[in-house]
Amino acid sequence: MFDSNNALSTKARNLKPSGIRKFFDLLSGREGVISLTVGQPDFATPWHIRDAGIDSIADGHTFYTSNRGTPELRSEISRYMDRRFGLSYCPENEILVTVGASEAIDLAIRALIDEEDEVIVPVPSFVCYGPLIEMCGGRVIPVETAPKDGFKLTPEALSDAVSEKTKLIILPYPSNPTGAILDREDLAALREVILKTPAVVLSDEIYAELTYGKKHTSIATLPDMKERTIVINGFSKAFAMTGWRLGFSCAPEALTEAMFKIHQYAIMCAPTVSQYAATEALKNGDDDIEIMKAEYDRRRKYLTKALSEIGLPCQCPEGAFYVFMKLSHCGLSSEEFCERLLEEHNVAIVPGTAFGDCGEGYARLSYAYSLDHLKEAVRRMDRFVKSLNYVAFL
Amino acid sequence: MEPILELLQENSIYSTEDMASMLGMDKDEVEDKIARYKEEGILLGGHAIIDYDKLENNHIVALIELKVNPQRGRGFDKIAESIYRYPEVKSLYLMSSSGYDLLVTVEGNSMKEIAYFVARKLAPIEDVVSTSTHFILKKYKSHGLVHRSIPVDERENCN
Question: What pLDDT score was predicted for residue A393?
């Protein structure tokens, strides 16, 4: 009898299911759950952007675009990167429009990584880097970031982790799940280490627009860094466009060309309707970003304060829309805490271990939810923490 | 605009504690500011926005255009005063229209009740030349909020 498991490649077979997925599976089918798990904005895409997408369909723009993305969108991306982050990229050969930032990450890894190449991945971090590196036969070198450093990658930790085999350094900041950001001084210190290596930097800046108090700095703006950095960004978080699946990469021509070849064969081009909508987002959407950011900021302040009041302190995150909450003092592991919170009080949060083993003792809470929703979650978590304390007291 | 006013405009049922945490302020500070806005007449009040279609009540709203003769030396203010005194009148605006001068919003329990109010109270006011009543049949959006069935969070957990 045909065994489809035997048909699988070794790499695909060895790929571990995402830890975050495992937890989401517990959620399905449950009624009345207050969930703080979702990693996407709760806003619908601003209407003028949706309207531009609709218009593009009505006008019959239903064909493939140029493989790299429409020239107009690439020009707008070039202007946007300059306007918002002080970065200058040529629309003709340094910008590639992709199916979400996720595709751009995959392309960058595939374009750079051979068997046994080492890739530095700060953890805890988003779940996609390791598996994509393993699919290329690369070796993941996880570098733990610590609460005492605000979950920032330190130059010391990076210096200990790099070797002559280091091909790529991933910089996932602003960070999902910790909310940490790297400011210019942090980046300058990392730059000293990076410049001593032959490594390229993949700077995943998908949350760049969502920083609170400080403006995002891209490592590519530092001297001698642009030539070895692939900046990845997209429309999902800044413009609430997750379902449109649109991202982009900005990188020197040689790197862009390699990524472009893979993209051309695997994907052809990003969805046309999404590209038209995204062009509108970049032309007239800067105000939308500010409005949504102000709303996240209020919820961020509310949630960190409310959690500390119920005995679950967390560092006030400086970016993205997550709080990385400490729970180690409650006497439960991350998974136990999250599973019992779900079982006993119907609140879903993601165990920190879903983002790397060093996330033990923490959980990720998304605040891309209305205030009422957050309040109900906090109320239930308060009851849960009190019940734990009561048992501990007995 | 001031952040407290922005929050209140968005949702006037936020508690002062919630506003304080969202804005990173003290509760006292928020309360002081609200008191000051009220004293200065900047903050007039706050209303809940109710979708009456989801309740059994009869709730009828009409927009009434009034054409009036302005009075010497007083313009429209005196006439406006004699209109806004009625509690049935929920809003009153002087308009730039060429067809009429004042726009009145009146709420009542039936079309008939409102029609009587116009005929018996508004139309007879001295200097009111003519009235034109428009009943609202369906509210699609009011105060920036769409009236519709309860929104569902359709976001999926995708990593």
Answer: 53
